[in-house]
Amino acid sequence: MDMRQLSYFLEVAQHASFSKASQAIHLSQPTLSKMVKNLEDELGVVLLDRSTRRVVLTEAGKVVQAHAQTVINASQHLLAAVADLTEMKKGQFTLGLPPVIGASFFPKVIADFHQLYPDITIRIVEEGGKRIEQLLLEGKINLGVVVLPVDERKFEVVPIVERHLNLVLPLTHSLSQRQKVRLTDLKDEPFILFRQEFNLHDRVKEACIREGFEPRVAYESTQWDFIYELICANQGISLLPETICARLDPGKVRVITHVEPGIHWDLAIIRKKGGYISHAAKGWIEFARQVFLA
């Protein structure tokens, strides 16, 4: 049984005539008769009483007519749903966002995307970059935004943002009047870092180690505003993204933009290499890429 057999049978039932049905669907009457007869043979019942001038449905024909119409309608709905997905009318995907990145870059991007595609649902999962990578590998989320680098043997990478980290000091700090600071100047300072599940944690530690020292970590947090308050309370120093630094009160902390060597903070959209990607997710990647690289 195939969809054409059901469709042709419904046409004959609607017109109560093989000749009228054949004209309506532009199919020869012998071919139409054969298709309906094949359906009857496959089902093992007679669907149409052909003994009168008008074709009449048998009891079995009435049952098949009702179910065949349901099947045809379901098929049409299926094709329409697939078309909606491929044409970016509908869809959904799950996006992993570290809180600091999400708050800094993505509210407007997500809002603009939603305005263009109101029936595409983005489910946000807030986690640190390392956890986002793990969730992608486990297939629990579809896309993630993380700080580079990542293992490109495991992930497809679409770079979107190139930034660097700034040094944030208490106003009373001995280095606060400088215009430029070297990382080695900070070797004895208490550092306040994002927690280890955040890629920023590793970026800072690795940069310091390359300069010959391991930073002394006084506090760790998942929240940039708590890190900021600790700096205000003279509990240590930190290296933070410039997007966060733009939110800090210059009357409470000193931000130094020239740190040598610079610590890059480059962002990318990543997904599991070789994994399935929906049309909605693919469209969002391209939309975000155009926004950030414009």
Automatic annotation (TrEMBL):
- In this chain the HTH lysR-type domain maps to 1-58
Keyword Protein transport part of the UniProt annotation: no
Which Gene3D superfamilies does this UniProt record tie to the protein? Answer: 3.40.190.290, Winged helix-like DNA-binding domain superfamily/Winged helix DNA-binding domain
Q: Which PROSITE patterns match?
A: HTH_LYSR
Name the InterPro entries on file: HTH-type_LysR_regulators, LysR_HTH_N, LysR_subst-bd, WH-like_DNA-bd_sf, WH_DNA-bd_sf
The stretch of residues making up the signal peptide is none
A Pfam family of this chain: HTH_1
Reading the lineage from the top rank, the first entry is Bacteria
Give UniProt keywords alphabetically. DNA-binding, Transcription, Transcription regulation
Family, according to the entry, reads as follows: Belongs to the LysR transcriptional regulatory family.
Name listed for the protein in its UniProt record: LysR family transcriptional regulator
Give the organism, scientific name: Cohnella silvisoli
